Structure formats: C-alpha cells, structure tokens
Amino acid sequence: MGENAKLKVENLKAGYDGKVVLDGVSMSVAPGEIRIILGASGCGKSTLLKTIIGLEKPLGGSIEMLGAKVDWSEGRPSNELMKRLGVLFQAGALLSSLSVGENVALPLRIHNPGLPVRVVEELVRLKLEQVKLGHAYSKLPNELSGGMRKRAGLARAIVTDPELLFCDEPSAGLDPVTSRGLDDLLLELRDGLGITMVVVTHELDSIRALCDRMTFLAGGKVVYDGKLDEAEANGPQEVKDFLERKPGEVKQTGRTIAFNVEDV
Amino acid sequence: MKEQVVELPEEISPEWVSREHFRLMESSKGGVLKLDCGKLHKLDALSLAWLAYLQDTLEKSGGRLVLSRLSPELKKDLAKVTLPEAEKPDGKEKPGLAARVGESTLKLWVEMRDTLVLLSESLYWSTMAFFRPKTLLREDIIIQMVRLGSNALPIVLLLSTLIGFTLALQSGIQLQKFGATVFLASGMGISMVTEIGPVMTAVILAGRSGSSITAEISTMVVQEEVGALHAMAINPIHFLVLPRFWAMSLCMPLLTVLSAASGIFAGLVVGLLFFRLSPASYLHELKDAVTINYLGQALIKSLTFSWIIALVAINKGMNVRGGADAVGKATTSCVVTCIFTIILADAVFSFIFYY
C-alpha cells in the first residue's frame, strides 16, 4: 500500500439530492487486491461505489485512481481515466437494444473506431467464452437469465482489459451455484490478469471466497478496515455480528393497547 | 350508558369485519360494546388491528369496548400486543400558491436551459464530426432515420392527404361563390407548404417519434444503462443524442415536403372532381403562387420543429428520476411540451415572416 495504491479514497463525503450518505470515508486498495465493501442494506455501499466511478459528484474529500486524482473541474471525471476502469452493475446494465455481442463490443467500438470489425468480434467471442457465454453472442439481453446477464455485464466490463474492476453486488439474487461460479471467475481474473477489484456485496459466501481485505460501512462511516479473519477474531462487535448473521439489537417502538378485559 | 353484547365468531375473517364493523359502530355509538369472545380461538393480525381501531374510535365517541370470556391463552397474547407507531407526518407545511408557482417557474427555466445546453452540445459535436468523421456513428443514424422517419411516412402521407382534401373542399366552396375557383391552387399550395405541411408533420412526429425517444431513453436511465455508458467513458451525447438529432434533422424536411405534396395533390383531385379545374391550370397557378421564398420558410420551420422534438424528447428522457411511472409521465409531458412549443414557434415564425 501507500504510494502505489490503485485506489485511494480520502475523507470522502458523498450523497445525492442534498442528502449526505457518507462522511469521512477513507480507504486504500493495493494492486492485485480484492477489496470487499460490506455493510447492511442502506449503509451507503452503492453510493460509495457510484461516487468512486464518477456517477455522483463527491461532496468533499478526494479520490485517487491508478495514480491520478479524479478531477471534476470539467463537470465529469476525465474519459482517459474512465477508460481504464471496468464496472459491473448490479443488474448487468446491458443496453437492451443491442445483442450481447454488440454490448460487449461497445466500449471497444466507440473508443477505437479504427479497429477492424473482425478483430473486435474475435476479441468479444474470447471474452464471452471466458465468462462461459460463448453461445449467447447474438442473443438479446432480455432473452438471458439474471445470472447470464451479470456474466455478460462482466464480459463487457473486462473487454478493455481494465486495471481496476468495480463490481456492484455480483452475486446478489443468484442461486448458490451460479454465484459461486461468478466468484471463481473473479478470482481467475485476479490471478490470471492481476486485476485489482473492489466488490460491493453482502453475500457472506462470496465474502469468504473473495475477500483479501474488507471495508465495513455503517452509519456513513468506516467501522472496520482489515482482513476478514481478524475481523472475525477481534473486530468491532457490529462487524462480528454481521459476519455471524446475528441481528443487532432491534429497538421496539410502538404502543401497547390496554383492552378492557372482563372475566365472567 | 346503554350496553350491547355481541358474540364474536370462532375466527375474525376479513369478510366478517367488512360486514359487521359499521353495523357495530352505528348501534353502539356512545355506549358500551361488550364483545363475547367465548367462541374465539385465534387472535391474528387482522383481529388485533380491528380491535385496536374499534377501541380507539369508541373511546373517541365517549363509548367503551369490553372483551369478555377470553380464554387464558388469548388473554396472554393480548397482553403482549404492541402496535407499531404510525409514521408521523414530517411536519412540512404544504407550500402555498406563490411557492408553487415559483417552483414550477424555476423548473421550467431549468428545463429550458437544459434543452438549450443540449442544443449547443449537439451542434458543437456535429460540427466537430466534420473534422473527425469517425466519431459520428453512421450506422446508428441510419437505424434512427428508419425508425423515427421513414416508418412515420405512411401516417404522415395519409393524414396530409385527408387534411388537404378537406381544406380544398371547404375553401373551394367559398371560392366558387366568387367564381374564383382557379385560386384554389395558390391557396392550397401556400397553406400546405408554409403551414399545414410543417406543422402537421411536426405534430405527428412529436406524438410518434418524440414519445418513442423519451420512452426509450428514460427506460435506459431507469435501468442504469445511461450510468453504464458514463462508466464505460462513452459520451451519451455521441451515442444517444447525435444519432437521433441527425436522424430527425434529416427526415423532418423530407417528410414535410412529402406531406405538402400529398396535400396539394389532394387539392388537385378535389379541383378536378368538384370544381372542373384542369390539371394544367392548377399546376400553372401553383407554380406562380409557391415561390422559393415559401419553400425556404417551410425548410426553416421543419428544421426548427425537428430540433424542438428531438431535443425536448431527449431532455425529458435524460432527466427522468424514479421507476416505471416516471417513464410514463415523462412521455406524456414530452408530447405535450413538443406540441405546445411547435405551435408557439409557428406563431413566432408567422410573425417574423409576414411583418
């Protein structure tokens, strides 16, 4: 870590529509690391991801990716930087009017208009084979199942060989076997190509399979940053409870009704 | 205080509550309602909610609810019941008339500004495309031209012919009174070319192509597809806006010409059938009346209308927030805004061209 970190977030304040969701979030992701961002629903995981990948403007703090500071002075982060990232969206976010093959080819086609069509096609087939979707090249996204759409989304995210890959809940809503397959795929990508990854998830099985380090968010702050086994051994109680699937204390609010009961 | 005793059934079902509730309320107003729970053997969520409501309303009207002959188990259940607190209204006052007027004016202003920004970006990138032709997605423009333009051709032709027919018939009858049916051609020519052709085509395309642009783009926004484009460093202006902008700009003048031509042709048919005009005199009169000046007006109008439709539709689509209902609302609002702006622009043009 330190100077050559692939992603460095410092004191980030983020939110949308004038609502602050995250305040003072810092983290640093080393090259080749799989970083899990974890937390209960509604804790700001997705907001953090959206802010890092430039879909929401940060309200404060700084983000540094691949050695360059993300600069919002032109209204959006620079395209040159964005081209070096891959993003897998929660539902795949494939363009529904294009076939799977065209979807995967899209970033290549737009960024390198001079690339011969056949080369793009070969490359796309290669990537689709990698995510085990070789047969789906000419299908439309709505002909695919949820898991296949996510894998196609992953193929699109890695088609430009990004150095940094972001995944928003890659295994949410998938059956255990498919979700395991997706996790294995991510591990293969990391081991084979050395892609650094930031994965937002709350599936405990995925966390166990993938996690190098984790960042646990709660109440808009980082509660824990470190390795999984250390968190299980002596992390904060909140993190331990989450990992052991214990519900935290639930405050009972409500009114008790005093009925008039009469015995006969 | 009067007292009423009612025996509850074994189980309180939704049907039972809907049948008995108002009767019970009516007959025990201000008195004591005693519910005999001897038969009751289950207290489910519905029974609890109903009992709580009954107790509240009775007490408010000065009455009292008494449960009698409850079995020990049910009594224990009843003691444990807590009903979740209803959400408090967030205390915000409803904005007054002035605030609402101000808010919608501000919204209108923001929308107008966004549309103009979109226009300037479209023109900027279109100009840039002349220097870097590869950034223009030609295939996509052709696809959009087919979808937004040529697929609208049959309906545009049909409606223009019908309007031309009606217009020719009505004005012909008036002209006949003065024996001036020969001027049918000039009247038809000028009104179809400068007014009906551009406005009809624009209104049809606003309803047909504008709504489809808004629906498509807003669905893409709702499904995070536009976010994905940003994340792939693909500028939505290149990928979504320019193909539609160009397709509309190219198709609209062509459709307008065809629309005017079909209306004029309908006028010719009416002239032949009803007013004994010869084709030669109709065409001769037409050639004299419709000068290049009028054709220029038609071109300027149709191009402006095409930009209005394309940019309003894209802007409405891009700014959608929410789910399926927002897509519907955006589409409706797109068509209304387009037609309003087109007619407003047409009025402004008439003013500019004739004064």
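The first strand of chain B starts at residue 3 and ends at 7.
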